[in-house]
Amino acid sequence: MASLVAADAKQETAGGVSEGSIPVYSSLRPVHGHDAEELAAADARYEGLALEFLQAYGAPPVLFVRSPGRVNLIGEHIDYEGYSVLPMAIRQDTIVAVRKRPDDGSAPSLRIANVNSKKYPAVVFPADPSQEVDRGNHSWANYFVCGYKGVWEHLERLKASGKEDVEVPTPASLDVMVDGIVPTGAGLSSSAAIVCASAGAVMAAHGLNFSQTDMAELCCKCERHIGTQSGGMDQAISIMAKPGVALLIDFNPVRATDVALPEGGTFVIANSLTESNKAETAAVNYNMRVVECRLAAMVLGLRLGLPKQEVYAINTLGEIEDMLSAAAPGLGGEGPLPAVEAHLKPEPYVAEELEELLGEKLETIMKSSPTSLAVLAAAKHFALYKRAKHVFSEKERVYAFRDTAARAQSSSGASFSSDQVLEDLGQLMNESHASCSELYECSCKELEELVGVCRKNGAIGSRLTGAGWGGCTVSLVRDGHVAGFIESLKEDFYKSRVERGLIKEGDLESVVFASKPAGGAAIFRFDH
Ligand code: NG1
């Protein structure tokens, strides 16, 4: 196979590809061409994937779709409450190679394999968009099935909304090979990377190309088949990211605004080496927080004097803030936090207490959500005050972060103290971490240790990133200090772990690294 970087870099916009859809390239250059070493490594990786594909299926892939992981700079656990977040994509991504398999008379099927076949064995599913994702069996390929279902669900929604010209293709047999290098269980959105790349591959293999916003929405919805009640941050950044900038992402509907990051600072990601398996721990961690926020919103709704039936329909703290603002425009400039102080007690609530207040069994209120019922079955108490306080304060920090970063852009000349901007951003990150740790209780002892080591070694700000309970930290570090910072982390955090056999010395480059904002999802068709 010829080198994949040799062809011209061109984005195809003809042939039914509408503006704002996933870019289609015939070369790796637009995504990986900023650096010769990166381009050569990407070229080798795609070549290797194409070869594995050929060996597995006896024919080459027709196209590749890549979608990146992300690091969230600020705005943790607030996307599912409807609030804006501020992530950037990282270089590490998942690539899905695909071809439509010619009809051989047998029932259409999806053959899904991974270049890492030891860890991720090959699986066959029916080519049936209505199949359920088997939540009881945590197969890696379930994420592909989520993306697969998402494409058809989106087409069905379009049809249901009255779009008469929507043609739903017949589901074809597909051969698929996946190559993912986003660390798993690390809070860097490996799950969104595979879901987005899978949905993109299914879409493109059937001759479709949806808009980026439609893709972001559909990937968010379909990843929920895995069993987590996720917000839309990861899928939105994975699809819509642009090289060189972070994005402020708003929801309902999903929108992205560029946030230029100030000169002089670099974000360094470090893995705590504690894996957090979000899908398997959903009932006690991630979904538990979603349910706690919903209960907090309901109790606040009661205090607002809403009728019970309206209260039961409330899902998020974002909805409650809108209602509070409608009742008292501007909320006296103080936002919803005073309502939390006034109406929620600092101690956790038990289920019976909430049922007494709400006048209904929690199981009845949440009966339409099996994942919420799993939370109720596992939960002993619900920390409504702490969770609401985190959400309402964290959303303010997101806007403060965006406004602080903008200060660096609007000032002209070096006399402006960009160092002060970095300090202010760092402080917001530290405050965010404290809130995640103390109020949202989504940290763990390894993350606390790592954040401490990062700050001790000169991070201007350091915080857990992603869902937490393990995974990574992100630290803001002065440019000139990055190499020394990484070395000191190796010494102070990783050395003892290498000695204990938790990680190999040679793998450290993939657990602690600096990252510039990378680009989003792309389709590659190499015609030669
Ligand atoms: P990670 O850390 O990638 O699992 C999860 C959610 C996000 C967001 C963050 C916390 C999914 C797919 N992603 O991300 O939507 O809520 O936690 O801010 O569930």
Automatic annotation (TrEMBL):
The keyword Kinase applies. GO terms for cellular component: cytosol. This is Galactokinase. Residues 422-494 form the GHMP kinase C-terminal domain. InterPro entries: Galactokinase, Galactokinase_CS, GalKase_N, GHMP_kinase_C_dom, GHMP_kinase_C_sf, GHMP_kinase_N_dom, GHMP_knse_ATP-bd_CS, Mevalonate/galactokinase. It comes from the Eukaryota. One of its GO terms (biological process) is galactose metabolic process. GO terms for molecular function: ATP binding; galactokinase activity. Residues 52-100 form the Galactokinase N-terminal domain. Belongs to the GHMP kinase family. GalK subfamily. Residues 162-241 form the GHMP kinase N-terminal domain. Keywords: ATP-binding, Kinase, Nucleotide-binding, Transferase. It comes from Klebsormidium nitens (Green alga).
